[in-house]
């Protein structure tokens, strides 16, 4: 069961992080240069159909995998949980930050999206992309010891 959960988690991460990297590196520069709101909207509408379910899969499988590694919620938020608890805490912080950035974009930026507000949306895209890459790094840290 753990292997299936991990596979689903990694597939979700691939879609989520890969999609944001494509958006940030290829789509966003063209959108900003041409002030092309329609191109950004077109990409976002298509990507959301696969990106949001991928994020939900990551959240569900991530919590399940964390529970398998440490079946005590109290230890998740305790210094006594050791390195595994620290990684779980890092993932939860990244999730919270992602939710805040996404909520701000969805409620404040996207409803007013225009050529003038594209740079602000660009910062949101870059923030979520950086957070998604950090998710991958922290996730890999469950399996790999850095600097050893």
Automatic annotation (TrEMBL):
Domain Copper resistance protein D positions: 45-138
Keywords: Membrane, Transmembrane, Transmembrane helix
Pfam families in the cross-refs: CopD
Transmembrane segments: 50-67, 88-109, 121-142
Stated name of the protein: CopD family protein
Organism the protein comes from: Halomonas gemina
Lineage, opening ranks: Bacteria, Pseudomonadati, Pseudomonadota, Gammaproteobacteria, Oceanospirillales
């Amino acid at each position: 069961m753990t292997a299936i959960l991990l596979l689903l988690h990694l597939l979700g991460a691939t879609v989520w992080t890969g999609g944001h990297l494509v958006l940030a590196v290829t789509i966003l520069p063209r959108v900003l240069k041409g002030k092309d709101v329609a191109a950004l909207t077109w990409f976002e509408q298509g990507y959301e159909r696969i990106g949001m379910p991928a994020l939900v899969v990551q959240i569900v499988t991530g919590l399940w995998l964390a529970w398998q590694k440490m079946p005590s919620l109290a230890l998740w938020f305790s210094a006594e949980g050791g390195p595994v608890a620290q990684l779980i805490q890092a993932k939860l912080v990244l999730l919270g930050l992602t939710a805040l950035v996404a909520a701000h974009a969805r409620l404040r930026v996207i409803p007013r999206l225009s050529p003038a507000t594209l740079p602000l949306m660009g910062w949101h895209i870059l923030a979520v992309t950086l957070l998604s890459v950090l998710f991958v790094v922290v996730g890999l840290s469950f399996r790999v010891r850095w600097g050893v």
